[in-house]
Amino acid sequence: MGRKREFDEEKALDAAMQVFWKKGYHATSLTDLTTNMELQRPSIYSAFGDKEKLFEAALRNYTKLHISNIRSKLQYNKSVKDTIRLFFEDLVEEKCQGNQNKGCFCINTMVELAPHDEKFEILTREHQMYLSVIFQEMIQNGIQSGEFHRDLDAKALAQTLVVSLIGITVLMKSRPERSFIDNAIISTLSLLK
Amino acid sequence: MGRKREFDEEKALDAAMQVFWKKGYHATSLTDLTTNMELQRPSIYSAFGDKEKLFEAALRNYTKLHISNIRSKLQYNKSVKDTIRLFFEDLVEEKCQGNQNKGCFCINTMVELAPHDEKFEILTREHQMYLSVIFQEMIQNGIQSGEFHRDLDAKALAQTLVVSLIGITVLMKSRPERSFIDNAIISTLSLLK
DNA sequence: TAAATTTCATACTAATCAGTATGAAATTTC
DNA sequence: GAAATTTCATACTGATTAGTATGAAATTTA
Asked: Across the interface, which of A24, A129, A175 has its CB nearest the CB of B121?
């Protein structure tokens, strides 16, 4: 019964994600959203609730995509260390180029909203923890296979990688010299041995 | 000639700095500013220009204070490594407590404004570069005194410390387990040897 | 003391904000 | 095909936004 929805909810959410990712929560207006989602206001409100609900949905959409993206980039091939190195180098490469310096939506939200809203404090924290677990598993594989020393602290090193990842992602927003980032990557990866 | 200014410009700027530091640029309204600066709108506009000018003045005020703050915390005493360790541990301690998770004003701005305004891209980048130079000088001292290996890359390690500092400062906004941060500090400092 | 000048407080502006009421268009169920 | 139901577009709401015009209060120069 009733009329059929004319818009693709998933596409609309992706568009919302892009806008919030680029501009953040407060700098994004409903007008920005209607323009980019190609939807009228009532459609947005009926499908996603208010601005904050939409933001949360967009962020959850992002973290899900982000995790699967990272998982595929970290597919085990030969050396764990080389895989991680390539991951970091790719990060620098893609963020330097076309990608207009949006950084990581989750990190942006950690800075903008986590201190003011427990919901986002938890959401962003759990995402980072999840990332550290992925790194930890990789490092453990490296230990098992003999690539790394037996007495390496996989958990601690994985958490260090996450801290480094955040630092690099944030610092790149100020477009520092390439070598600044490269040096940080080299030093950090030298911990894996 | 004319009436004397009744307010302390420096105090007003400090108050503005606190508000922008806590809430960021977009989430801070002129009403927030008049309340916290205890000034009427026309007084703010005549003394500092518009909202963006005031923000820039507040940020410059912050970076100046921040540098002198860090310089005093990094006063050389005995071991360079211990001094740096203490610096990072203090950071965790103070940000965990009373300080209501504001993080670093400069880093917050790097995330919120640097990608959208070249003026802030430059300002925040230069601040981070300045910090790395301070670390670099310390590490060079450590090499000179024999505390560190002769072949340590002081510049690269200093830049790594800055990346780590940023990562930790940002991650703490999501209030992760204390050990997460502690592990990152221990690992990163293990590069100084 | 009088004129000149600056600060400050009130009250305002036009624009934009998030969110919604209303009714027409479209589709389904009966 | 008629009634019921849902979506969509237009146009609106009251609140809040950044920024300012105006005049009174206060101080200085002459």
From this structure: A175
- Mean pLDDT on A111-122: 97
| Structural fold of domain B74-193 | Tetracycline Repressor; domain 2 (1.10.357)
Q: Which residues of chain B have pLDDT under 70?
A: 1-3, 6, 97-99
CB within 7 A of strand D (chain B, 26-45): 28-31, 41-42, 45
Q: What is the CATH number of domain A1-66?
A: 1.10.10.60
Decide if A143 contacts A157 (C-beta within 8 A): no
Handedness of CA A104, A107, A111, A114 (dihedral sign): positive
ipTM score: 0.93
**Which listed CATH number (3.30.870.10, 1.10.10.60, 3.30.950.10, 3.40.50.720) goes with B1-62?**
1.10.10.60
A1 CA to D6 C1' distance (Å): 7
Q: What is the pLDDT of residue A7?
A: 76
Mean pLDDT, residues A158-162 taken together: 98
- Report chain D positions within 7 A of protein CB atoms: 4-11, 16-22, 25-29
The per-residue pLDDT for B2 is 63
Asked if A111 lies within 8 A of B111 by C-beta distance, the reply is yes
* Contact, A44 CB vs strand D, < 7 Å: no
